[in-house]
Design brief:
alpha/beta, Aldehyde Dehydrogenase, Chain A, domain 1, 7-stranded parallel sheet
Length: 428
């Protein structure tokens, strides 16, 4: 069964305007929806996805065949594929989000003022969230579920290579919404692969309140530079671990090895190791042997290359600014914590930075002075993740400073407003 065909370019402005208006209207209904209704919708979508497995697989097969014919590489085709296990994962994700606490309507910081009024803050939805992403069709279900639970309508634009898969998932989501009594327009997936639709999405602040791009650095830079709608983004993750001269060597070994080798292709993987010069001669050879056993290529500063001799190549100036996403590691020997923090300030991407030290004063300095969305003491950078932080699920990791920073869970998809409680109070 084929879903919505590509909308023709001559319809595009009218199509996007209509879609935006319907999303805005749906956002008002969603903002008023109870937790029970939103959770019922999530469970209904999970049930519908389970019911249409065969259809999902057939639509995904169309995308895979088209992608193979266009010469997509094996890694992209793997990300695109919807196996039974990945469909299970989508369904499980929806059901897990249904069990998370609902942030909407939460009142906090309520306190009496001298006038007798009470002033507090309430958590509210952002409104309409636009999400632009590449290849993986499971993002369609994940993103829609997080936006739905946080009371936001969402407009989704997946990669053109996953068009048929995304349309099938979108139809399933809309059936689930209607079953629960919510407007189908609360989740809309663009029915066009025209790139001009993205330009429309990011320049219609009257219809869309925030844009979240998920994909490669090129996509995110293009959207950030052209958007007239606020963007929640992270460009890249150049994460550092600094091993201090007062580090426990066993902790330092474990943290530095895990931060690089637990998984290579993630934004919270360490790309540069910084080692205090006092301990470098003793510490580095032992650790380098473990990296080499794992197949990691080492690129070092002049001092690192002297210590490791044949096991390390000289790092170029560009290596310190490189997000490898691969078994390659840059290593620099630094004089002290100030040298480490200066290196991070110059080359870091404000994602995740970690210090290994037993000195509480240095740990506190590092936490206070290092400018990143996550700063850690004696822990692997691989912990920078919504699930590990107890957020239940995340839509991405923001390296921005407004309006949300670090892993973006349900709370990150909300805003707050001031509320005032009085009893006939008037200002004197």
């Amino acid at each position: 069964m084929s879903h919505a065909a590509n909308v023709q370019i001559d319809d595009l402005n009218a199509y996007m305007g209509d879609l935006g208006q319907r999303a805005r209207a749906a956002s008002r209904a969603l903002a008023a929806a109870t937790t029970a209704t939103k959770d019922a919708a999530l469970q209904a979508i999970a049930g519908d996805l389970d019911r249409i497995r065969d259809e999902l697989m057939a639509e995904n097969r169309r995308d895979l065949d088209t992608g193979a014919a266009k010469g997509l590489d094996a890694a992209l085709l793997d990300r695109l594929e919807l196996s039974q296990a990945r469909i299970d994962g989508m369904i499980e994700g929806l059901r897990q989000i249904a069990t998370l606490p609902d942030p909407i309507g939460e009142i906090f910081d309520l306190r009496f003022r001298p006038s007798g009024i009470q002033v507090g803050r309430m958590r509210v939805p952002l409104g309409v969230v636009g999400i632009i992403y590449e290849s993986r069709p499971n993002v369609t279900a994940d993103a829609a579920a997080l936006c739905l639970k946080s009371g936001n309508a969402t407009v989704l634009r997946g990669g053109s290579e996953a068009f048929h898969s995304n349309q099938a998932i979108a139809a399933s989501i809309q059936r689930g919404l209607q079953l629960a009594g919510l407007p189908a327009d609360a989740v809309q997936v663009l029915a066009t692969t025209d790139r001009a639709a993205v330009d429309s999405m990011i320049t219609m602040p009257e219809h869309i309140d925030v844009i979240i791009p998920r994909g490669g650095k090129g996509l995110i830079e293009r959207i950030s530079s052209n958007a007239r709608v606020p963007v929640i983004k992270h460009l890249h993750g150049i994460c550092h671990v600094y091993v201090d001269d007062e580090a426990d060597p066993n902790k330092a070994f474990d943290v530095a090895l895990n931060a690089k080798t637990q998984r290579y292709g993630t934004c919270n993987t360490m790309e540069t190791l910084l080692v205090n010069e006092t301990i470098a001669d003793d510490f580095l050879p032992h650790l380098a042997a473990a990296y080499i056993d794992e197949g990691v290529e080492l690129r070092g500063c002049e001092q690192t290359c002297k210590i490791l001799r044949d096991h390390c190549v000289a790092a170029s100036a560009s290596d310190w600014d490189e997000e490898y996403l691969a078994p390659i590691l840059s290593i620099a020997v630094v004089p002290n914590i100030d040298g480490a923090m200066a290196h991070i300030a110059r080359h870091g991407s404000m994602h995740t930075e970690s210090i290994v030290t037993e000195n509480i004063s240095k740990a506190r300095r590092f936490l206070r002075e290092v400018d990143a969305s996550s700063v850690m003491v004696n822990a692997s950078t691989r912990f920078a993740d919504g699930f590990e932080y107890g957020l239940g699920a995340e839509i991405g990791i923001s390296t921005d400073k407004f309006h949300v920073r670090g892993p973006v869970g349900l709370d990150g998809l909300t805003s707050v407003k001031f509320i005032v409680l009085g009893d006939g109070h008037i200002r004197e």
